Automatic annotation (TrEMBL):
Mg(2+) binds at residues 190, 218, 243. Pfam families: MR_MLE_C, MR_MLE_N. One of its GO terms (molecular function) is racemase and epimerase activity, acting on amino acids and derivatives. This is Dipeptide epimerase. Coiled coil: none annotated. CDD domains: L-Ala-DL-Glu_epimerase. Its EC number is 5.1.1.-. The active site is at 162 (proton acceptor), 267 (proton acceptor). One of its GO terms (biological process) is peptide metabolic process. InterPro entries: Dipeptide_epimerase (IPR034603), Enolase-like_C_sf (IPR036849), Enolase-like_N (IPR029017), Enolase_C-like (IPR029065), Mandelate_racemase_C (IPR013342), Mandelate_racemase_N_dom (IPR013341). It comes from Caproicibacterium argilliputei. Keywords: Isomerase, Magnesium, Metal-binding.
Length: 365
């Protein structure tokens, strides 16, 4: 089964509410759909969001990378020769991790389908169900408290609270959320690089002194400031999660060697897909460190690939796969079921997901 062509297109999905972080404000998903077609007519699908503040990619750069660099390197290669095909993918162009991720997940989808198994089983796992948090955008303390309470009413038991914009309000924001949802709801805080090391220590200690009981704080300082993040970790009791600091296995090793984080956040759009994510999983396992699986602003297609990875690897201990829960609609059918805080894995082969405008019986063959 050889790769015959790789095609890109675009799609849009509105968000239930604007997504606001310390880095950006977004009102709709506008992503690239990648279709990998084999010589026998099978199709695998992948998705890439343009997340310029994090990966440096735009819609145009993703489509260019796939069509002008990745496609020529992969056409004619065997899906079953996965290692060779992945090496060709990841050496076809420098950086462009989201573009690579979309092609990567489509190839893994085709590979697992060729073997007749769900991808998560091929990756070695047997988790039938995952639990995800839901992200609460950064706003006034009062609005964030109301949004958090609405999430809890939808069934979410874990909240990821965005901060880092106007840091002087961050303690009040988390205090308001905790007072609104009570003590039984888990709270994770994500600063998206919005604090300096000194601010981070002061704010996190304030949250600790207030008894706000956080699961962890994600990426408190700039991605490149590993010394600063190590300083924060050494001076607070709350665990620190590295996100934007970790794109590759080499990044993961650097973070752990510096003592800059307690956990690592794996996102397929940073790692270039499942192939790179598995390398980070191996490093984390060897160092005795747990990982979280996260996502950018992605629909159920890309999040399905991330869910299969999480269900396949024991080292991935928690999930931030709320992309489908933020969307007004789902443009795909099949794949894992996203039931608010619950993700129930599919048992049909591969990712088991395809666009609603494509004949499902043809795609699942």
């Amino acid at each position: 089964m050889k790769i015959a062509s790789i095609h890109t297109s675009e799609f849009r999905v509105g968000l239930r509410t604007p997504f606001k972080t310390a880095l950006r404000t977004v009102r709709e998903i506008h992503d690239v759909l990648v279709t990998v077609t084999t010589t026998d007519g099978r199709r695998g699908y992948g998705e890439a969001p343009p997340t310029a503040p994090i990966t440096g990619e735009t819609i145009g750069s993703i489509r260019c990378a796939v069509e002008e660099f990745i496609q020529p390197a992969l056409v004619g290669r065997e899906i079953e020769d996965l290692e060779d095909t992945m090496h060709a993918l990841h050496t076809a162009i420098l950086h462009n991790t989201s573009a690579k991720a979309a092609v990567d997940m489509a190839i893994y989808d085709l590979y697992a389908r060729s073997l007749g198994v769900p991808l998560y089983r091929l990756l070695g796992g047997n988790k039938k169900e995952l639990e995800t948090d839901l992200t609460v955008s950064v706003n006034s303390p009062e609005e964030m408290a109301a949004d958090s309470l609405a999430a809890v009413r939808r069934g979410f038991r874990i909240l990821k609270i965005k901060v880092g914009l106007q840091p002087e309000l961050d303690l009040a924001r988390i205090r308001a959320v905790r007072e609104a949802v009570g003590s039984q709801i888990a709270i994770r805080v994500d600063a998206n690089q919005g604090w300096s090391p000194a601010q981070a220590v002061r704010i996190i200690r304030g949250m600790e002194d207030a008894g706000l009981n956080l699961d962890f704080v994600e990426q408190p300082v700039k991605a490149a400031d590993l010394d600063g993040m190590a300083y924060v970790r050494q001076n607070v009791s709350t665990p620190i999660l590295a996100d934007e600091s970790v794109f590759s296995a080499a990044d993961a090793m650097a973070v752990l060697q510096k003592g800059a984080a307690d956990l690592l956040n794996i996102k397929l759009m940073k790692t270039g897909g499942i192939y790179g994510a598995l390398q980070i999983c191996s490093i984390a396992e060897s160092c005795g460190v747990s990982c979280m699986i996260g996502c950018m602003l992605e629909s159920s297609l890309a999040v399905s690939a991330a869910a299969h990875l999480a269900a396949g690897k024991r080292v991935i201990a928690c999930a931030d796969l709320d992309g489908p829960g933020l969307c007004k609609e789902n443009p795909y059918h099949g794949g894992p079921q996203f039931l608010e805080n619950r993700i129930v894995m599919n048992e049909n082969p591969g990712l088991g997901i395809s666009p609603k405008w494509v004949d499902e019986t043809e795609e699942m063959r």
